[in-house]
Amino acid sequence: MLQVKDLRVNYGHIKAVKGISFEIGTGEIVSVLGANGAGKTSTLFGVAGIIKREGEVSFKEKLLPPNSSVESTKAGLVLCPENRRIFSELLVEENLRMGSYARGNYKSGLEFVYDLFPKLKERRTQTAGSLSGGEQQMLAVGRALMAEPELLMLDEPSLGLAPVIVDEMFRVLATLKGKMSVLLVEQNALKALKISDRAYVLQNGNIVKSGQAADLLKDESVKKAYLGM
Prior knowledge:
This protein is of the alpha/beta class. The protein has 2 domains: 1-76 and 149-229, Rossmann fold; 83-148, no CATH class. It is built from 10 helices and 10 strands. It has helices at 40-48, 69-75, 92-99, 106-116, 118-122, 133-145, 163-175, 189-195, 213-218, 220-226, and strands at 2-11, 14-24, 29-33, 54-59, 62-63, 77-80, 151-155, 181-185, 198-203, 206-212. The strands form 2 sheets. The protein has a 6-stranded mixed sheet with strand order 6-7-8-3-9-10, sandwiched between helices. The two termini are 34 Å apart.
């Protein structure tokens, strides 16, 4: 589904991502773990074509040009960014409609999202800014799903949420396995690994460890650094 070769992202003289390579298969959930500043978000933005990148990104065996975020979305590679970035003055349903602007069927997408997040259906005529933090995160993920992604990239979907909402978010993400590929950047490494097929660990812009999620859950260095064990 996705092949990334020698991805590099720089901010001036700062090398945020230093030539990493990885891949994601059809229907897989793959996590990218690492401390703050490891290069996780820069990796997502580079793959999505939101920021300038070097290296090769191939999606469904087609090479994507740099700075190609719109083309990437139309092809089925969809990013749900950190901090939600919803349109707070628009209604919930209007926000969801925006998600299907470049790609996706609005009617079937809306049904799919409301099945995943019944709370959004209840709030569909409210302004997005009036939602709770957890509901806004549901809306952000739901808006990304409206584009019917073949590869959904999620940047810290549990950030700042109450534990009960975090559990609900990961329950929903687990149901996506097999329906689409997912690239998940997440600080909650334990929950991420539990729903993932594979994972990569980033440190200072480099991949320092990778493997099956089940194996990484047992890895002593991963447990000590990221799982609090």
